[in-house]
Amino acid sequence: MCLEAVVEGQVQGVSFRWSTQQQAQAHGLVGHAHNQPDGSVEVLLCGPRHEVEQVAEWLEQGPPQATVTRVMRQEVMLSSMPEAFTTG
To answer: Which of 20, 41, 68, 83 has its CA 20 to 30 A from that of 58?
Structure first.
């Protein structure tokens, strides 16, 4: 499954993308974490449902330096799977 999430709050400049990548890789997931111009972080998680859901729950808090105020999630269908987890 693939899940797209937009994480809002103090999530830029606090290692959120790097920490998300570490979580995703530890759970065998592919996708990405990208900073958005509005200060949010867009996250795509793809892999086994249970693993995706575990990392999606982690997004609600993020790394210790982050202050997450809102996470909007939706399951998405992709025509092709990413090959790795990237940040940008």
So the answer is: 83
Q: pLDDT for 3-59, tens place per residue?
A: 999 999 999 999 999 999 999 999 999 999 999 999 999 999 999 999 999 999 999
Model pTM score: 0.95
Question: What's the rounded Cα separation, in Å, for the pair 58 and 37?
Answer: 23
- Phi, psi (rounded to 5 degrees) for 55: -70, -35
Is 70 among the catalytic positions? Answer: no
Does the annotation mark 73 as catalytic? no
Segment (H or E) for 31: strand 30-35
Catalytic residue among 35, 49, 70, 73: 35
